[in-house]
Amino acid sequence: VKNTLKVERAKLNLTQQDLADKVGVSRQTINSIEAERYIPSTLLAIKISKIFKTTVNEIFILEKGE
Amino acid sequence: MENTHNISQRILLPRYFRVVGLGSVLIAFAVMLLYKLSSTELLLENTEVLKELTMNLIILGLFFIAWSKDKVEDELTLLVRLRAVAWAFGFSVLNVIFNPIVSLLIGSKAEMISGQQAMLTMILAFLIMYYIQKKSR
Question: Measured between beta carbons, which residues in chain A are less than 8 angstroms from residue B137?
């Protein structure tokens, strides 16, 4: 699963820590998601998409074959 | 359906247990050190009791450290904990099976490890795997 989290974050000028505080996780978790080492739960994905006022599908994109 | 935050809140000990655990381990080591350095001759039975008590205190202390909450508990921390438990469990099973074989090959007889030794190895394996994964996440 690819994601556009870094781009979306840059648009709102948010740091990883800012986003982490808003969704109630650690900065390391946001970093792991951005680096595509970790796929978040549905709940966290929805929380993140709400911050960026978009849909989950816009941020988290299934890659071919998944 | 319960979310990961609620699970962490329910199954883990409060953060101050980390300090309690560390204190327990330090007290156990201090007691062992004092006993070694002191010239007091205790009866053999008392020595065994002291060994049991300090070992149990160390196990309890390490358990408190391992099972207390982190500063931020989230779903990734829970996943890291789960992975560490899986590693520790696997390592302990292998330890129980292969330790007697190794002791037979090195020494003269196959010595089974005690419950305390197995538990101590399991908690130590958990702590090591937990901190390694936390650093590399």
Answer: 28-29, 32, 37-38
Which of A24, A28, A43 faces B137 most closely, judged by CB atoms?
A28
A32 and B4 within 8 Å at the Cβ level: the answer is: no
CB contact under 8 A, B76 and A43: no
Residue with the two structure tokens 């062992």: B32
Residue B72, chain A, CB below 8 Å: the answer is yes
Q: What is the ipTM of this complex?
A: 0.82
- DSSP element (H, E) containing A3: strand A2-3
> A45-63 as b/e, with b when 16 or more CB fall inside 10 Å?
bebbbebbeeebeebbeee
pLDDT digits (tens, 9 = 90+) for A28-50: 999 999 999 999 999 999 999 99
State whether residue B129 is helix, strand or coil.
helix
Q: Mean pLDDT check: name the lowest of B14-18, B19-23, B73-77, B99-103.
A: B99-103
In contact, B121 and B92? CB cutoff 8 Å: yes
Residue-level pLDDT at B4: 65
The per-residue pLDDT of chain A, averaged, comes to: 91
**Residue A17 contacts B where some CB pair is shorter than 8 Å:** no
Angstrom CA distances, B60 to A25, B87, B90, B119, stand at: 29, 20, 21, 10
Distance between CA atoms of residues A49 and A42, nearest Å:
10
Answer for the pair A16, A34: CB distance below 8 angstroms, yes or no: yes
